[in-house]
Amino acid sequence: MHAPENAVAVIGVALRVPGAADPDTFWDNVVRGHVALPGALADGTLGVGGIDRFDRFDAELFGMTPTQAAVTDPQQRVITEVAWEALEDAGVDTARDPGRVGVFLGCGDSGYRHRYVETDPTLSRAAGRQQISLGNDKDYLATSLAFRLGFTGPALTVQTACSTSLVAVHVAIRSLLTYECDLAIAGGVTVQLPPGAGYTHHEGDVVSPDGRCRPFTRGSRGTVPSSGAGVVVLRRAEEAGRGTRAVLLGSAVNNDGADRMSLVAPSPRGQAAVLEEALEVAGRKPEDIGFIETHGTGTELGDQVELAALAQVYGDAAQPCALGAVKAGIGHTDTASGVVGLIKTVLAVQHAVIPPVPAQPGDGPDVPLGSDRFRLPREAVPWPGERTRYAAVSSFGLGGTNAHVILAEPPVPAETFEPATAWPGRGLAVLSAAGPEALERTAARLATAVREGTGPVSEVLGTLWHGRRRLPHRWACPVEAADEASARAALADALESASVLAKAVSEPSVAVLLPGQGVTLAGTGRQLLAADSDFAREWGDTRALVRACGGPDLEGCWTWPADDPRWLRTDLVQPLLFSLELALLHGLRRRGVTPSVLLGHSIGELVAATWAGVFSEEDGATAAVERGRLMSLAPAGAMTAVLAGEDTARELAEGVPVDVCAVNAADTVVLGGAAEHIARVEERCRARGVKVRRLHTAHAFHSRSMAEAAEAFTDVVGTLTLHAPRERVLSNVTGAPLEAAQATDPAYWGRQLRGTVRFADAVETLLGASPGVVLEAGPGRTFASQLRRATRGAQHRPVIAELLGDGTRDEATVHLAALGSAWAAGCATDALVTPPAGPARIPGYAFADTRHWTAAGPDGHPAPSAAPGTATARPEQPGHDAAAGPAPDGPGADGPGAGETPALLAALWQESFGGPAIRPDDNFFELGGTSLQAAQLISVVNDQLLVEVRLQDLYEHSTFGDFATLVEELLRERDDAHLLELLAEIEAQGEGEGLA
How many Cα atoms are found within 13 Å in the side-chain-facing hemisphere of 593? Predict the structure, then answer.
């Protein structure tokens, strides 16, 4: 089928229900008829359905402090994580996805605040009334998620009892179709409290007497309460693409009104009306529907009324129709039940399977279903192949609000999706997380799934790049393989060893190193040309610039053999380096990487100046061609790299007519001169045990032999138009930033050709600017390696990478790795990975397994010690012995003694945040503190220490050390005698009023 107009696609699903925490496990349980309810418990009560992670939460990921998380209703926490999982299932990063995201959620009764938070005086004092309300009132369920994830569409809390989440889906559909939002998150959550506790059946209850839910069977007498959560991600069908799981064709909502016995009694007429309206909106007939997921609570009256309404609307058709009831397997998840039933039905139409209603020991026979077309399947069966898969879902709320949704199988793609491969035979794997440990957990889960999976690796890579939120701690690794099996193994291996490559910062400064002559060039660019057609075009353009100004034809230079004599021709090599490095800079800009600092070596400085606008590209090409030509006319010579300091190199060359051509590092100096003179110096070096390396050049650049070329080049530059640099260029002559007066002086460029290259000084200047990323844009890895050595052990270490490498690895893979490293550091690199045809269904983010609860445990008793592998939400106060009993109610009404104030303030800060112990340099706002939290902390400090700290004081003294110092000063200035007099007066007034 093709998606009709005004249809809405389900593109992502996520849930937590008894027995399952992901859609795949849930669907497997449904298909095999698994019942996940505990039944009778050892204490004689009946079990409530429970879910995973009801007391766990990844506060770091969602920007909450441990104390904020601990005072927040677990329903709010659970739905936040489930919504994140649903977006990952949809393959949507809402931070990059255009359009507005709407949120439509509901939750169950919140007993957490009264049962747990308000019975913990320390936590209540630390959080304050307003923060507790924000974390527990239903009003903030949708808006808090919108805040946490940055959504700007409508954020509505929907509450209609049991039908809440399906009504939320209906509202979301309307919002999408009226263009209030472009993506919608809809669902619901209920967490039964206290978790793990059972219930007792009483005659007349709606709950089951045996802990089992048996919809549409004789003798069924009730449902089983359960915790649960579910979220669907919706998009207008025509915009949904290939990730569609199912299509929602129409929905309706109504209320039973007064046509019933009581507020909580159902009405067959009201239910029938909503079914008819939904069919009409969807444009379908009753006979089209092959499966109906019922409300099916297992209560005798509820089931009878629902079957009557179904028979009235759907019963006269001839085609068979199966009925489903998810509550038989997981119980009644209350406000989440509608969306859970919808998710089950979405999976059914997607997988073309009619799911069963589980048969359970103690079941009676099926009740009459009201129509011969209805059947209650007890085993999963294939959906009849000759029929389009249409289905329906019902959810009826206690109080009379009814909802019904019509859906269909996902549409058939209009055409085959064959995206161009960005890097043939290669791909980039990326991950990001809120912290290093989370990244490693996520990578480990994904590695297992990749090894066991069968889907294309390219779809996995595309999903990781395009369909995951970009978080601060990042990892990137190229994957190179000749076939799918090798790619899968390579990706899994890389993931198993993944660790944080960099912590991304917004718009990191990028420095680019541009090598000069003397590097190995044979074969350079060949593999990148084959892999990146845009680079091929860009290098073609810069080679054309060289030809246009009378320079050499460099076509095919990447095929010249290593022993080709052309590699010794300066008039060829310098224009070649100019064209190659300028093309690489264009490639960086195309990928979203913008250099802010450029450091070129010799001819590389000319490239840097051209990029920075000192020369136009045409004039830069002219300068490069003339520079190479003039230098090639100089006498033959040789150059050698001496692995020693400048003073040692000069000492070894003393008395020999050679020059210091370059100081590349503290331990690397290049000497140049006539070949026989260089040979003499090399002999001296070997005799002293100093290593030397002869460079592959035909001349002694930057030596006395270049004097004539320098003078002529000054004249050439004098004919060109020069400008001040737009970006920072570091000077070879001084090692400092190139000044406008230097850049626009032709004589400077003559000195630059002749004089010593002060590259080591320039590197020191570069590192002093603390760049976030350093890329070597040219052949080899000499200078990148030098920077790695220079920054070893430094407090600030930039990400350093080469764009081409030294030929020991595939050039295109090295280039991809460098761009991935830039992305990991925070660069807005783009188009590195081909979009997937649809999102790969792969494991998502591995949330932290951190317990966030009040001092009372989930059973209402004091919390036991944390189990291995878990963390407490709020560690004990500093200096407090947990074995000695509860912490004191406050720092003390009697006031602190000498030296106690910092410890007492640390205790208050600790209460406010939770988490690790407070340190003097901890900043209130960097710890995640908010203005609301600040006001509460100031109130507590003033109340406990009897001082008058203002809110502004915390803003101005935001580190703990500064704040503690301020409070100590206020305490010293306090007039305690006057304070005692006031207290005495207050007490006396109270006694007088009592006598009166």
Answer: 30
Q: How many residues does the chain have?
A: 996
Please indicate whether residue 162 is annotated as part of the active site: yes
- pLDDT for the residue 833: 92
Whether the per-residue pLDDT at 165 is higher than 80: the answer is yes
- The catalytic position among 602, 705, 821, 912 is 602
* C-alpha dihedral sign at 551, 552, 558, 561: negative
Q: Is 827 annotated in the active site?
A: no
Of 498, 495, 497, 486, give the one whose Cα is nearest residue 447. 495
What's the rounded Cα separation, in Å, for the pair 470 and 504? 9
Known catalytic residue: 332?
yes
Predicted TM-score (pTM) of the model is 0.89
Considering 175, 213, 295, 321, which one is annotated as catalytic?
Answer: 295
- At CA 430, angle to CA 490 and CA 90, rounded to 5? 110
Backbone φ, ψ for residue 630 (5° rounding): -65, -40
Average pLDDT on 223-241 reads 96
Mean pLDDT of the chain: 91
Q: Decide: helix, strand or coil at residue 785.
A: helix
Q: Are 465 and 843 in contact (CB under 8 A)?
A: no
Q: Report the pLDDT averaged over residues 502-507.
A: 88
CA distance 307 to 309: 5
**d(C-alpha 811, C-alpha 245), whole Å:** 40
- Residue 880 falls in the annotated catalytic set: no
Average pLDDT over residues 650-679: 95
pLDDT, mean of residues 852-879: 50
Angle at which helix 603-611 crosses helix 617-632, to 10 degrees, equals 170
Tokens of 541: 């353009």
Quote the CA–CA distance of 784 and 436 in Å, as a whole number.
Answer: 25
Strands 638-642 and 668-673, by their bridges, are antiparallel
Reply yes or no on whether the pLDDT at 560 is more than 70. yes
Catalytic residue among 107, 110, 144, 162: 162
Q: Is the pLDDT of residue 762 over 50?
A: yes
Instruction: State the pLDDT at residue 404.
Output: 98
Using alpha carbons, list the distances in angstroms from residue 969 to 904, 920, 941: 15, 17, 14
Instruction: Show the CA angle centred on residue 781, arms to residues 523 and 724, nearest 5°.
Output: 100
For residue 880, the model assigns a pLDDT of 37
